[in-house]
Amino acid sequence: MQQQRVPTPVTGSSVLPAAPRAEGHRPPAGTGARPPSGTGPRPRRRPRLPGLAWLPLLLGLGLWGYALPRIGFRTMGEYGLLDRLPVAFFAALLVLTAGFLLALRRAGTAPWWPAAYCVGMLLALKAPPALLYDSVRYPWASKHDAVIDTLLANGELRPHAPLSGNMAAYEQWPGFFGLNAALVRSFGVDSAAAYLNWAPVVLGLLLMPVLVLLYRTFTEDWRLVWTGVWIYQLANWVGQDYLAPQGFAYLLHLTVLAVVLRHFVLPGSAGRLRDRTFLDPAAAAVPPPTSRRQRAVCVLVLVPLLVAINASHQLTPVMLCVSLSALLLTRRYRNFGLLAVACAVMLAWDLTMGRPLFMETLGTLRESLGELTRNSRAGYAGRLTGPGPELAGLANVLMVLAIAVPAAFAVLTRRRLVRSALPLLLVSAAPLPLFAVNDYGGEMLFRVYLFGLPGAAFFAAAALVPAARAARGGRAGSPRARTVRRRAAAVALPLSLVALAAGFLPSYYGKERMHYTPPAETALVTRSIDRAPEGSLVLAATGSFPKALHRYDRLEHWFFAEQELPENERMLADPARYLADGIPPGTRAYVILTRTQDVYTAGEGLLPPGGFAKLRDRLAASPLFTVVEEHPYGVVLEHRSPAR
């Protein structure tokens, strides 16, 4: 009796696999995977991607290279770089996006192509300032360079000195600066300014494998992994990846979480999450459990990273402890030992090296605790003014919605994926309660968004990338439903990625006029500060100008407009008398007002329209101050002390 042959089910043009694998995967030739003749129509062969994948990549980077010298950064207006980017730059981003979508079709068999496009897009988005600018991007980043210079010159910092200009935080958490001092010596450069503008690119490259490790913990679908990485890059407009302790500590923070999520699974805690038929088709099974001894060894391995985080930044250890606390809500990662070690390291540092600022911060909690509206505002004034900053602020809000809405949709519709990736969801939502604690100098909104972004990008990708075909016996919906989802994704995914790229540009470059400083202005500030005798007081409207803290260990600083707008309006009524009354008797004081301060105070809403010009004119006309040097990019005045 002849055995009846069961036909192999066919979905679209691909054979349904016996085990879950990325969509579009085809077994290699010669493995016996080709169906025998007579069993049905032979699946159509798709064109091999590797022969075509390099074309959009080279074309996109070629267009970008052509556009780069044509970016008019020296003539930026109200819209920053937005209206100074040539058409070829936008075309390059579109070509790279199209190439990424093409590479995504074979992500399961050739994941290096989506990786190459992610690197290409990172360079296209964040390398222009590093290649073009003849000065440090982000004027406030120059204070980090000043700390590194001080460390190199003196061989030590003063952690308990009551320094002004918000420098106590840097002095009491010096780990990042010690690392960069070593790098400056190793590279043989004059200062960290030589590589400062490359920090966003370097940190982006270092973050990429960490994100891949995080996402691969919860999904086997390479399309979902690389789409999550791509969305993260487009949504990372916050500007916290410059050469600063935050970016370095954030990298270590995600590294710790990646190790925990892969190597701290408790035995017997997976349950149905190891059952392939129960999981979402894209979900990965829970990692293998580890014994108590193995977890103890992992804790010892993580201790140096915990110390490095605590030695470099004040807020990141808090975020890490909050994230580890959130993981206790899952049975998989209910590990009190690691949380106890992380909290102990944080408190040990805060109560020793960081004690002065830590105690000062505790004293302010009574005022900020529960002030949700105040703590979630952006900046000192929380009100952007001018076409470019206002457009950037609107783009920021839309970008948050563009990530939050699809992420929420995935949480509601792909519940099996959410159940397996619940730890990632928890650690991404964990920072939200910090809005009730403190405003962190007007930056808590950006920090919460940054720490929640990895998980939000993953779930946003899950909403845009349809589930791969389910394992045999799994449930992924009817064939018609799967077809509808694939067709919807074929439209939604490219439109969403293009929209995110379009939103990134105003979010990241809309306020670029504040971030680029002409070298002549830097030279003016450097000359003025070098002339000031040791112990002098340097006054400026804000600390956001180049070389603001040059020689900070020998001078005092007062950034008098970094306060609420009503107080600044009272100051403008008689700025000369206001400043003179705040200068200690017998102290030599210099006022430095520059173009960058003008742009920053106007854009961030610190001063009313025309307020900076009024400030400059009234100080120059006052008998209490005399003009030392005047330049198209700024003016320097000296206070006429009655004692002299």
3D structure, described in words:
It contains 26 helices and seven strands. The chain is mostly helical. It folds into two domains: 53-134 and 195-470 and 479-513, no CATH class; 519-639, no CATH class. A hairpin with a 2-residue loop joins β1 and β2. It is globular. The N and C termini lie far apart (117 Å).
List the helices and strands and how they pair.
Blueprint: E1 10-11, E2 14-15, H1 54-67, H2 87-104, H3 112-126, H4 128-132, H5 142-154, H6 168-172, H7 175-187, H8 199-216, H9 222-235, H10 245-263, H11 292-312, H12 315-327, H13 336-350, H14 355-368, H15 372-375, H16 387-413, H17 415-420, H18 422-429, H19 444-464, H20 479-509, H21 512-515, H22 519-531, E3 537-540, E4 556-559, H23 565-573, H24 575-582, E5 589-594, H25 595-603, H26 611-621, E6 625-631, E7 634-639
